[in-house]
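Request: When convenient, would you put together a sequence paired with its structure tokens?
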Amino acid sequence: MSKSSLRRQFGHDFFSHQVVQARTYDRTIPEWALSEREIGEVIKRAFPKWETSQREAASRWAVVINLYFRMGYTRSQIAEEIGSTTSKVHGVIRSILRVSKGFSAAKGSVRGRRGRPPKNRSPKS
């Protein structure tokens, strides 16, 4: 069966193709992600020992922030780029968003004093 007979039979040119672009998603970029200084503050808040023992994790966050928030990559594209899984990248993005809002990266609680609150001791009458 030739091309012309297929065109006549189905009324469409199945042998033509069109060039398509990669799918992109409109994502609102947080204000802090546009500033190098504020990105540094978010990373330093999450990794206070980033200069020594937490350097690898802090650099992973920096790469994910750049690819996800600034360049608009998807989670799967980032995972492929850094050699990780999409679920790990999703967890990193979730933690980044938590820390940027002032919460702890792991628990979601507001950072501040730890431990049991002091007892409210009122004098006995």
Q: What stands out?
A: DSSP finds five helices and no strands in the chain. Residues 31-104 form one domain. The chain has a mean pLDDT of 79.
